[in-house]
Specification:
alpha/beta; 44% helix; 225 residues; TIM Barrel; 15% strand; globular; 8-stranded parallel sheet
């Protein structure tokens, strides 16, 4: 059974909207601590604040890199990753360069991801999740992007930023599972706003869920360990 506590441990609670204030970030961290989520994912300029708020709680501070379009230069993403880690991030959700991927520049995309991975590997335990923005990819493209992320050394593949033209879909997650399941973690994100949808993805065997509607999901989950 997917109890409240069990689901909470899979959630990356997202606080990424452009208008969020420092007070909103603090509130997001308090919510994350209250429910015992896996991480609270924030914008790069909020990492130091989130790390302070989450210190000692067991909830990981995580940061987005190259967000939301992925079109930053590799050097910029690498620097952003380094600074986020220095500020206390232990997980990095980086956006793949979707435009270059669709242009067939796989080597550039691989190098882009690898540059962030190289920064993460400077600190033990820092994880890198690659956001593919699957709404812009066909099935073959989803599989190819997964392979590139694996070759670049990333830890997870993630469906969506939540700022693109579409959310996670079970079909996309199934392709991700078939391609890198058992080798990489898989994180659906975008459009997961209720308990039933969260359970649907968790039953597929994913390791994390990216959500902003944490309270709405957990309020209908049964109690238990």
């Amino acid at each position: 059974m997917w109890t409240k506590q069990r689901i909470a441990r899979t959630l990356d609670h997202a606080a990424l909207k452009p208008h969020l204030t420092d007070q909103d970030i603090v509130a997001a961290c308090q919510l994350g601590k209250r429910y015992g989520v896996a991480s609270v994912c924030v914008r790069p300029s909020d990492v130091a604040l989130a790390a302070r708020e989450l210190a000692g709680s067991g909830v990981a501070p995580s940061a987005v890199i190259g967000f939301p379009h992925g079109a930053h230069r590799p050097e910029t993403k690498a620097l952003e990753a380094r600074l986020a880690i220095e500020d206390g991030a232990v997980e990095l959700d980086m956006v793949m360069n979707v435009g270059k991927f669709l242009s067939g520049k796989d080597d550039l995309v691989r190098q882009d991801i690898a540059a962030v991975v190289a920064e993460a590997r400077q600190q033990p335990g820092v994880k890198v999740k690659v956001i593919l923005e699957t709404c812009y990819l066909d099935p073959e493209g989803i599989a190819r992007a997964c392979r590139i992320a694996r070759e670049a050394g990333a830890d997870f593949v993630k469906t969506s930023t939540g700022f693109g033209d579409g959310p996670a879909t079970p079909a996309a997650v199934e392709i991700m599972k078939q391609t890198v399941g058992g080798v990489m973690g898989i994180k659906p994100s975008g459009g997961i706003r209720d308990y039933a949808t969260a359970c649907q993805y968790l039953e597929m065997g994913v390791e994390r869920l990216g959500v902003a509607a944490t309270e709405a999901i957990l309020e209908h989950a049964p109690e238990g360990n």
